[in-house]
């Protein structure tokens, strides 16, 4: 298969390194800036607990149009970066390819549930409907990531924890392309599984992502660093409850996950300071590097979905404008 990793940062770099090391497919990368230059010059290096290896892609470019049509495009760009490259992704898919969107939070294709329920673009995530038109939700696989990775220097990705990837069709079907994507990831050492209810997995991960990303970004503390202020743990716990309530208001019951979300190694790692040592959520990494944060996908759209059903979200109502203000200040600088 021809596979393109669109966005070779922390997550994309990890996937690319695994696929390239396995050597079963032709893997190309779309990258930019110092990451692009480093991979071109020295290859892509992956550091893990018991691994340290360097691989070279079939091609690495910042011009997606340089690549031929792909069988699978794995898009690991942050949600706010996706609309600007919708046309490039759509062109890479050709007539038969599909795109797997591996990013945190609510995805742009959220309202699509199959031909009988076509839905419409989500304004906060796809403001002008570019992804909806150029990529098309019918050509999408969803993906929920449980994998902690970080670019420690250009061309070098460190994998720090977890290796679980849940894939699913937006309409809940078990398709051939879904099984093929899971198979190729598993063959590369990526623990992938297929789900017939990808939205429930998205909500389940948001139980952790929404509180920890938000509070760590605003305080600049890693997860275990929150242990020094009990009120921060209480705030995180309140956000967990609000995310579960919003999910329930949209017909998805994740109440059985709430207790686990508040226990080790999730919020428990923050509550006692003894686990999740030094783990820095993606929004914390972004704010430290002066990059835009995934505010809307991780918390803004959750707040919007709550308002659509009249579900109270007082903690999110506080956090969302604070995060937007922080991001606006970053942009001004």
Say which CATH homologous superfamily of the largest domain is assigned: NAD(P)-binding Rossmann-like Domain
Measured distance between first and last alpha carbons: 43 Å
Which structural class fits the helix and strand makeup?
A: alpha/beta
| Parts with pLDDT < 50 across at least 5 consecutive residues | none
What would your notes on this structure say?
With about 325 residues, the protein is an alpha/beta fold. The protein folds into 2 domains: about 1-195, Rossmann fold (3-Layer(aba) Sandwich), CATH 3.40.50; about 200-330, N-(1-d-carboxylethyl)-l-norvaline Dehydrogenase, domain 2 (Orthogonal Bundle). About 45% of the residues lie in helices and about 20% in strands. It has 12 helices and 10 strands. The protein has helices at about 10-20, 35-40, 85-95, 130-135, 175-185, 200-220, 230-250, 255-260, 265-270, 280-290, 295-310, 315-330; strands spanning about 1-5, 25-30, 45-50, 50-55, 60, 70-75, 100, 140-155, 155-170, 190-195. Strand 8 (about 140-155) and strand 9 form a beta hairpin. The protein is globular, with a radius of gyration of 19 Å. The termini are far apart.
Secondary structure elements and pairings:
Blueprint lengths: L1 E5 L3 H13 L3 E5 L2 H10 L1 E5 L2 E5 L3 E3 L10 E4 L10 H8 L4 E5 L27 H5 L5 E14 L2 E13 L7 H12 L3 E5 L2 H22 L10 H20 L5 H8 L4 H6 L9 H7 L6 H15 L4 H19 L1
Parallel strand pairs: 1-2, 1-6, 2-5, 3-9, 6-7, 7-8, 9-10
Antiparallel strand pairs: 3-4, 8-9
């Amino acid at each position: 298969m021809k596979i393109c990793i669109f966005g070779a940062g922390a997550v994309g770099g990890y996937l690319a390194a695994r696929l390239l090391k396995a050597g079963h497919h032709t893997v190309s990368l779309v990258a930019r800036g110092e990451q692009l230059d480093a991979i071109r010059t020295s290859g892509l290096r992956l550091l893990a607990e018991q691994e340290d290896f360097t691989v070279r892609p079939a091609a690495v470019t910042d011009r997606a149009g340089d690549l031929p049509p792909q069988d699978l495009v794995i898009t690991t760009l942050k949600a706010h970066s996706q609309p600007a490259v919708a046309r490039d992704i759509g062109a890479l898919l050709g007539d038969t390819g599909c795109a797997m969107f591996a990013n945190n939070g609510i995805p742009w294709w959220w309202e699509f549930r199959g031909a009988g329920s076509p839905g419409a673009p989500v304004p906060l995530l796809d403001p002008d409907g570019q992804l909806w038109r150029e990529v098309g939700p019918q050509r999408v696989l969803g993906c929920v990531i449980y994998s902690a990775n970080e670019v420690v220097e250009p061309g070098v990705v460190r994998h720090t924890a977890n290796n679980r990837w849940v894939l699913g069709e937006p309409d809940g079907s078990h398709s051939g392309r879904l099984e093929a994507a899971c198979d190729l990831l598993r063959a590369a050492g990526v623990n992938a599984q297929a789900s017939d209810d990808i939205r429930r997995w998205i909500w389940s991960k948001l139980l952790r992502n929404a509180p920890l990303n938000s509070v760590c970004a605003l305080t600049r503390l890693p997860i275990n660093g929150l242990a020094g202020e009990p009120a921060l743990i209480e705030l995180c716990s309140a956000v967990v409850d609000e995310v579960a309530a919003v999910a329930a208001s949209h017909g998805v019951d994740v109440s059985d996950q709430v207790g686990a979300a508040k226990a080790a190694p999730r919020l428990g790692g923050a509550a006692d300071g003894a686990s999740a040592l030094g783990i820095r959520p993606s929004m914390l990494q972004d704010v430290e590097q002066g990059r835009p944060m995934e505010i809307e996908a991780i918390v803004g759209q959750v707040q919007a979905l709550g308002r659509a059903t009249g579900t109270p979200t007082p903690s999110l109502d506080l956090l969302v404008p604070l995060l937007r203000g922080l991001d606006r200040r970053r942009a001004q600088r």
